[in-house]
């Protein structure tokens, strides 16, 4: 495949790296026998985004901030298309991938390098307005950090520089795993050293609080809004009688989803046939999936659900919320709602099928004490992460946690709440419900109690002990 350019040799495309429908496409390939990455801009705003990308890259280059060299900028041979070509950086990976693969100490070192890069931006009166780890490239040999995506580069507002810098730094921190927030004070001090800013513990605490606020706001914007409309990750179609959202990597014909009841009617694949919901395993688009239908129990129940977000939609949003927070849950694949205009009726949630035992089955079939202790520790880490993110699950029975490759996956997300009122009380309720699963097994109860005490000791001595005491764990 080639991208034909006006007054320049074509790009020989090897891989399409990313596509934003009707906006841009990022490809890897060869141009003039050189390895390159190219951005092709299309659509009604193509020239605007193209011009901003080029302008941002030039701002970085003029400030001597490492960024891939711009080799060509111009028009495609096709009408209304624009292309920017950048030199490929050999043996490198984006910081998002690197961060996910590194050990804890190496992640801290990477964060120091990213903070130093952001400090470079700020010293040059620049700001990356689309600040994600994937917009930084780490060269393997030199560990040089390259800033990508010139479209997001802006100059700082002269009147609000300090506020913009602080918010930008907190945005960077919000992309860390929530358990790495313990580094924020040290990283803020590193930023102060790089920028000549006076460091204070109070300012560091304010940056920590701003980090939590930004993380929650971004999560709400993505899970509660973005995945309910057409975006990079989701395709949405809507009519008077039907609303359908499909994950873009679920290559299914929408017509297949028009008769999900056929899969639920197969007794051989039935998982649950309850009054409130019906669940079955199915194979759709060559993928093993779980189809969950939320039933209407009667006239009054149906009327009460018409104006509220469906439980299927809540599950859809919460699955994306957990994925964003790096908490394992089956991949959300589709949401289907029957409607009459804006009034909701029955709803369906389709997710990937995970072939793994639930937590009770896992411990029942495991005899090795060391394995039990390690998996118990992983499960308590899951609860701790939910605590840090202020997420309550609402139904922590054993069947709602599966164990795959020694790691927990969280299921049944329709009662899950983020940043709910009286969150600590709800978290204690989750802990109590989880521990009731083992009330007939004294040995396993002791293993989990030891794991919770070990993990929650990191909250702080007083608060951690209080939470566990209220949950009757310590």
Question: Can you characterise this structure?
Answer:
The protein has 474 residues and is an alpha+beta fold. The chain has four domains: 86 residues, Phosphorylase Kinase, domain 1 (2-Layer Sandwich); 132 residues, Transferase(Phosphotransferase), domain 1, CATH 1.10.510; 123 residues, Phosphorylase Kinase, domain 1 (2-Layer Sandwich), CATH 3.30.200; 112 residues, Transferase(Phosphotransferase) domain 1 (Transferase(Phosphotransferase), domain 1). Helix content is 38%, strand content 26%. The protein contains 14 helices and 22 strands. Strands 12-13-17-18-16-15-14 form a seven-stranded antiparallel β-sheet. A hairpin with a 5-residue loop joins β9 and β10. α3 packs parallel to α5, α4 packs across α6 and α5 crosses α6. The longest helix has 23 residues. The radius of gyration is 25 Å and the shape is globular.
């Amino acid at each position: 495949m080639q991208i034909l350019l006006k007054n320049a040799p074509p790009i020989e495309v090897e891989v399409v790296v990313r596509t934003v429908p009707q906006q841009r496409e990022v490809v890897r390939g060869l141009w003039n026998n050189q390895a390159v990455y190219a951005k092709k801009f299309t659509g009604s705003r193509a020239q605007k985004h193209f011009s901003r990308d080029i302008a941002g890259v030039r701002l970085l280059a003029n400030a001597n901030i490492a960024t891939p060299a711009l080799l060509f900028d111009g028009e495609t041979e096709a009408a209304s298309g624009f292309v920017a070509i950048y030199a490929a950086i050999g043996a490198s990976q984006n910081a998002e991938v690197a961060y996910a693969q590194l050990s804890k100490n190496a992640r801290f070192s990477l964060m120091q390098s990213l903070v130093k890069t952001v400090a470079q931006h700020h010293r040059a009166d620049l700001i990356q307005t689309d600040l994600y780890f994937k917009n930084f490239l780490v060269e393997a040999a030199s560990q040089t950090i390259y800033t990508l995506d010139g479209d997001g580069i802006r100059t700082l507002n002269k009147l609000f520089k300090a506020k913009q810098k602080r918010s930008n730094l907190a945005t960077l921190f919000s992309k860390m795993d929530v358990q790495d927030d313990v580094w924020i004070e040290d990283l803020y001090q590193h930023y102060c050293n790089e920028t000549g800013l006076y460091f204070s513990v109070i300012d560091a605490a304010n940056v920590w609080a701003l980090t939590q606020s930004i993380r929650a706001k971004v999560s709400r914007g993505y899970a509660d809004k973005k995945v309910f409309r057409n975006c990079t990750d989701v395709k949405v179609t809507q009519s008077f009688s039907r609303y359908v959202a499909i994950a873009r990597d679920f290559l299914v014909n929408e017509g297949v989803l028009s008769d999900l009841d056929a899969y639920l009617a197969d007794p051989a694949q039935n998982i649950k046939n309850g009054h409130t919901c019906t669940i079955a395993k199915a194979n759709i688009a060559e993928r093993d999936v779980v189809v969950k239908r939320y039933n209407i129990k009667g006239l009054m129940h149906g009327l009460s659900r018409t104006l509220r977000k469906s439980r299927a939609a809540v599950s859809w949003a919460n699955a994306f919320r957990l994925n964003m927070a790096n908490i394992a849950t089956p991949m959300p694949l589709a949401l289907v709602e029957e409607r009459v205009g804006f009034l909701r009726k029955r709803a369906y949630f389709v997710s990937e099928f995970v072939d793994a035992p639930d937590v009770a089955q896992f411990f029942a079939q495991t005899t090795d004490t060391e394995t039990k202790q390690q998996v118990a520790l992983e499960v308590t880490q899951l609860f701790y992460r939910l605590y840090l993110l202020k997420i309550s699950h609402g139904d922590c029975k054993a069947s709602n946690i599966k164990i795959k490759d020694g790691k927990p996956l969280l299921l049944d997300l329709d009662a899950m709440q983020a940043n709910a009122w009286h969150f600590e009380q709800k978290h204690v309720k989750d802990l109590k419900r989880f521990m009731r699963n083992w009330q007939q097994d004294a040995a396993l109860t002791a293993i989990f109690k030891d794991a919770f005490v070990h993990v929650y000791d990191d909250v702080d001595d007083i608060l951690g002990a209080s939470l566990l005491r209220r949950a009757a764990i310590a």
